[in-house]
Amino acid sequence: MSGKKDTNTEAFVMHRRAMYESDAWKSLGKVEMKILARLEIELMSHRGTNNGQIICPYDDFAEYGIRRPSITPGLRKLDRVGLLAITQRGRISSMRNPHHYRLTYIATYDENGNRIAPTDEWKKYRAGSAARNKTPDTKTYPVPVTKTYPVPGTKTYLCSRWSPVTKTYLLSIIYPYLPVRWRTRTD
C-alpha cells in the first residue's frame, strides 16, 4: 500500500451500530427508511456539509418511489422518533418554500465551518411509550360517534344526533343502486 489518499471514493453516510439496535430504528417502516435514504442521498450530493439545510421537495420524494400521501406521515414519524429534525418549516405559496431537514445522527457544520457533534435525539425514544414520545405539535382529531336515536313513528336504521336517517330516506338514496330483486322487498 502506498500511503496515498484515495481521491476517487464515493460519498457515503456512516451509521452506528447503536442506532441500528435502537428502538427508534426498529420502529421504522419501509416508507420512513426510503425517506431517510432520499435525504442521505441529498446530503451526499452536497458533500455532507449542508446537514441542517437539506432541501428535498415532495417531488423528489415522489420520484424516489414514495407515494405522496405517505410522505407527511413518514416525516412526522421520523421527527417523533428523533432521527430527523425539521429546522425550517416550508410553506405552500407561489415561492414554493420547502422544508429544511437535519439528520440528527450526522454531524452538522456552522456558518464558519466548525463541526458540531450529532445530537442523537433517537436515543431518547422508547418503543411502547407513545404517550411519552408524542411531540406537542402532534394533532389528534376527535372521532364522531354515531348512535341510534329513536324517531317517533318510523323504523330507524342509521341515525345520528344531527340528522336522523330513516329506512324510507335511506332507500330513496340508494334505490337506483339496489339489485332488482331487492327493490320490491318491504319490511
Concise synopsis of the structure shown:
The chain has helices spanning 17-20, 23-26, 30-44, 58-63, 68-81, 130-133, 167-174, 180-183; strands at residues 54-55, 84-88, 100-103, 108-109, 115-116, 156-159, 164-166.
Large-scale geometry: elongated
Alpha-carbon Rg, integer: 26 Å
Question: What is the CATH first-level class name of the largest domain?
Answer: Mainly Alpha
Q: Termini, distance in Å?
A: 91 Å
The SSE string, one letter per element, is: HHHEHHEEEEHEEHH
Provide the structure class: alpha+beta
Strand order of the largest sheet: 1-3-2
Number of helices: 8
The figure for the number of domains is 2
Query: What is the helix fraction of residues, given as a range?
Result: 25-40%
**Number of extended strands:** 7
Q: What share of residues are in beta strands? A: 5-15%
Spans of at least 5 consecutive residues with low confidence: 156-164
**Per CATH, what is the topology of the largest domain?**
Arc Repressor Mutant, subunit A
The CATH architecture category of the largest domain equals Orthogonal Bundle
Biggest β-sheet description = 3 strands, antiparallel
